[in-house]
Amino acid sequence: MEEYPVDVVPDQIVRWLRVHEQINPGTFTIRSSRKFIDAAIDSFEKDGISADTDVGSVMAVGIVEIRPAQEPRDWVLRIRAEDALGDHVPEDHSVTPDPEEIDLETFEEWFVRPRRAAIGATVLAESDETRARLDEIFDAMMSNRHPD
Hints:
26% helix; 6 strands
């Protein structure tokens, strides 16, 4: 499979998917996850922090993977979001090596609605024919249509 950038804004993809799953459930297999990681501070000087200061930074990383539920399963649409949370993990959460499975609504609440996360989308497709079918789906997303 070859990876390509997606020209549809990830916010629109998530909103469209939530509605589409209500109208046509089971069209896609959707897996969403979130994990909290220790993030490196790029430049102490740039951030106004002394290099000998003991400081940490936490980042929330969210991933949504969308695949066709039926054959051919020849593409994967992936949305990745990263949100710098500061120096601590939100209450009731912890930094763990394994991602936590979340639903699409939780992904939207954490990463899309606040509009503070760096978010992007890519697609893995097996062929030009696959990309043509995906273009039809992306067109439906941008025009907010929900075909069967």
